[in-house]
Design brief:
Its cofactor is Co(2+); Zn(2+); Mn(2+); Fe(2+). By secondary structure, the chain is of the alpha+beta class. It has four helices and 16 strands. The chain has one domain (about 10-260): Creatinase/methionine aminopeptidase superfamily (Creatine Amidinohydrolase). Strands 1, 2, 4, 5 and 16 form a five-stranded mixed sheet that branches. The chain has a three-stranded antiparallel sheet with strand order 3-12-11, with no helix packed on it. It is globular.
C-alpha cells in the first residue's frame, strides 16, 4: 500500500477530524469516575460524536462491536466496552477514540487513573505519556520512522519498562488504517523517510512487566501475559516542512486523574496531570 502525501484541502479536513476526536475524548474524560461502566463510555462516545456531526470510525470496523476501545489495567488494547465492567478506585483505563467526518479520520487516546492507583500503574502511565511526547518530538520532514521508535525505546528502557512490538501506529486519512506501519521500537536513521504531508498515529503501548501479549478468545482484547498494568497514549500527527503538527491536540490539558469516588460520596482532592499536548 502506497503512503499518501496529503494536500492542503485534505489536511484541512483531517484537522477537523482530529479536533472532533480530541473533543470527544475530552468530553469522556470529564465524566470518568469510579462507578461508571465501560459501556457508559461507549454510549458517551456515540452521543458526543453524533452531536459533533461525525461518525465513530471503530464501530463495525472488521466487526468490532463498539464505538470506542476501553482497555483497563492489564488490557493492552482493543478492550470491548461492557455494561458489567465497572470502574473502581485503583483502575487505569485507556479510552481510544476515532472520529470520521467528511470521509477523513482522527484518532487519539489517553490512559486515565481512577482515584489512587498503585505505584506500578502510576509509573507505567507516566512513562507512556513521556514516550508519546518523545516519539512526536523527532517527527520532521526528512527524518525516518526508526527515529520515532528509537526515541520511545530510549525512555522506556531507561525506566525498565517494556514496549509492545506486535502493535504500532499507522497511517491515517481517508481510511482509519493506512500505510505506513509505525513501530514503537526501532533504530534511529532507519526505516521509511518522512515527508511533509504524511499523517500517521503514534500510540506507544508500554508495560511494567515483559511486553509479551496474549489475545483473548473474543478475538479483540489483548492483555499482558502476566497481568501487569499497561498504558497507552495516542495522537494523530502531520509531518510538516518545519517539524510536525499534532492534529488531535487538546485545547487544555486532559485531567488524567479522575475521581475515585461514587456519585454522592465525599470528593477529595482531584489533582490534574498534564494531558497529551
Amino acid at each position: 500500500m502506497a503512503i499518501v502525501i496529503h494536500g492542503a484541502d485534505e489536511i484541512a479536513k483531517m484537522r477537523v477530524a482530529g479536533e472532533i476526536a480530541a473533543g470527544t475524548l475530552a468530553y469522556v474524560a470529564s465524566k470518568l469516575r469510579a462507578g461508571v461502566t465501560t459501556k457508559d463510555i461507549d454510549n458517551w462516545v456515540r452521543e458526543d460524536t453524533a452531536r459533533r456531526g461525525a461518525l465513530p470510525s471503530q464501530l463495525g470496523y472488521k466487526g468490532f462491536p463498539a464505538a470506542v476501545c476501553t482497555s483497563r489495567n492489564e488490557i493492552i488494547c482493543h478492550g470491548i466496552p461492557n455494561p458489567e465492567h465497572v470502574l473502581v478506585a485503583g483502575d487505569i483505563v485507556n479510552v481510544d477514540v476515532t472520529s470520521n467526518i467528511d470521509g477523513y479520520h482522527g484518532d487519539t487516546s489517553a490512559t486515565f487513573q481512577i482515584g489512587e492507583v498503585s505505584d506500578d500503574a502510576r509509573k507505567v502511565t507516566d512513562v507512556c505519556f513521556r514516550c508519546l511526547n518523545a516519539g512526536i518530538s523527532v517527527v520532521r520532514h526528512g527524518a525516518r520512522l526508526g527515529d520515532v521508535g528509537a526515541a520511545i525505546m530510549e525512555i522506556a528502557s531507561k525506566e525498565g519498562c517494556g514496549v509492545v512490538e506486535e502493535f504500532g501506529g499507522h497511517g491515517i486519512g481517508r481510511k482509519m488504517h493506512m500505510a505506513p506501519h509505525v513501530p514503537h521500537n526501532g533504530t534511529a536513521g532507519r526505516g521509511v523517510r518522512l515527508r511533509a504531508g504524511m499523517t500517521f498515529t503514534i500510540e506507544p503501548m508500554i508495560t511494567i512487566g515483559h511486553p509479551r501479549v496474549v489475545q483473548l478468545d473474543d478475538g479483540w482484547t489483548v492483555v499482558t501475559h502476566d497481568g501487569s498494568p499497561t498504558a497507552q497514549f495516542e495522537h494523530t500527527v502531520l509531518v510538516t516542512k518545519d517539524g510536525y503538527e499534532v492534529l488531535t491536540a487538546q485545547r487544555t490539558p486532559l485531567p488524567l486523574i479522575r475521581p475515585g469516588f461514587l456519585e454522592g460520596e465525599q470528593a477529595g482532592g482531584e489533582p490534574a496531570l498534564a494531558g497529551p499536548a
